[in-house]
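Risk register update: the risk of archive-format incompatibility is retired. Evidence:
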Amino acid sequence: MRLRITPGSNLSGELTVPGDKSIAHRWLILSSTASGRSLIEDLPRSLDVGSTASCLAALVPSVRPGLEAWSRNDGPAAKPGSSTWNAHDRTGVTSPLEVQGQGRAGIHLPSHDLDCGNSGTTMRLLAGVLAGAPFTSVLVGDASLSTRPMERVAEPLRQMGASVTTRGGHAPVKVDGGGLHGITYRAPVPTAQVKSAILFAGLEAEGVTTVEEMVWTRDHTERALRALGAPVSISADRTTVSVEAFQHEGFEGRVPGDPSSAAFIVAAAALTGSEVTLRGVGLNPSRLHFLDVLARMGVRTEARVDHESVGEPVGDLWVAPTEGIRSTTIAAEEVPLLIDEIPVLAAVASRAPGDSWFLDAGELRVKESDRLAGLAEGLRALGGNAVAEGEDLVVAGGGLRGGRTYAGGDHRMAMAFVVAALSASEPCEIDGVEAADVSFPGFVGALSALGARIEVLP
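Archived output:
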C-alpha cells in the first residue's frame, strides 16, 4: 500500500489503540498452559499475535477449539473513511478468547514444525515453554526472522538442562526439552524476550531460577505471574527476577492498549501541535520511558491510571498541544527501554532545530529490518538529514522537505515515516505501509479519523 500524506492537518479527538502485543503473547501462553478456564478480551488482531496463537493451537489440543473460534472472528479491518470506521472503537479487536487449559501437562508433541512467522517474541518465548516439555520440537520463521539472533535464548535454556540447537545462531530452533533445573543467569544483552523465556522455563525447573539484567526491561511476564500467584521475587531496582516451579490456574483479563502503538499517535499529535486523548492504554512504567524522552523534547503529556488487569496498570494518556520540538540525546542505557519507540522518536527529532543522537542503538540492526540504516535512509528520502554512524543514529533536524520512501517491510518503520510526514513542508509518499498491520491494524484509519490528510494511492 502506497500513501500520500499531505501535511498541515490539526489532529483532534479520542482514540483507543489495539491491545498490547507484548502482553497478548504472554497471556496467550499463560492461558494455554493454565489449569482451568481463561477468558481474554481485546486480544489485538496483529500478525505476530496470530503466530503465537497458531503455534499454541498445534501444541495444546485442549485450547485449539477456543483459538480457532477466536481466529474465525478475525475479520478484515474497516478501511479508512468507511462507514464502519469508528475512532472510539479499538481497532482490530476480535471476539473474546475462551480456552480450557489442562496445565503444562496439556502440551503435546506437534505434528509439524511450529511456524512463528515474523515474530521473534513467539519464537523466543515458546522456546522457554518448550524447554520443559518432554519431546522434540522445531521453531521456524520467515526469511526475516531467520536472520535474527537466537543463541541469546538458546544458551540459558541449555544451562537449565534443555538441548537447544540453532543454525548458525539463527532459526530454525530445535528444542529437546525436559528435566530442567534452576540457574542464575546474568544476561549480557538486556531483553525482556529472553528474560521471559527463562522465567517460563523456570516454572518447570527444580529449584530457583533467577535472571539478572543490567537495566530494567519490560516486566509483563513477572507482573502476570505474580498476579496469578506464582512465587516471584523482584529486586528493589527491578533488574533481578526469580521464580520457582508453579502451576497457575485460569484467569480473566482485558488486554490494555499497546503503549508502543500509542507512541505513534502521541508523536503525531506532538508534530502537528494537536490535543489528543488515548483511552484504555497500558501504563506499565517499564513501557513509558518514551514519554520522558518526549518531555525533554518539549512534549507535554499526562498519564492517568484508573484500574489494573492481571497486574497491568491501565488508564488514559492525554497529549497537550506542543509549541516546539527540541533536540535531545538518547543515552546507551536508555535504549533497552525504548527499543520499539526509537523509530518514532527519530521521526519527532527530524522536526527539532538541532542534532539528536541515539547512542549505542546497534540492537536496532537486528530487528525486523536494520532500523538504524533504514531510518537514516528513509528520513533523507523524505527531505531530511540523518545518518547511521556505527552503532549510533544522528538526526540533524530542521524538518522534512517532502519526498518518497519505502518502509522495507517493517511495521514500526512504516508508521514512523507516516508520522514524520505529517509535519513535512511538502507532501510525502510512503510505500509498504501495509506492514503496520503487524502491530497496529487500522493505523492509517486511526490517523485519518483524527483528521490527518492521508490518501491511498493506486
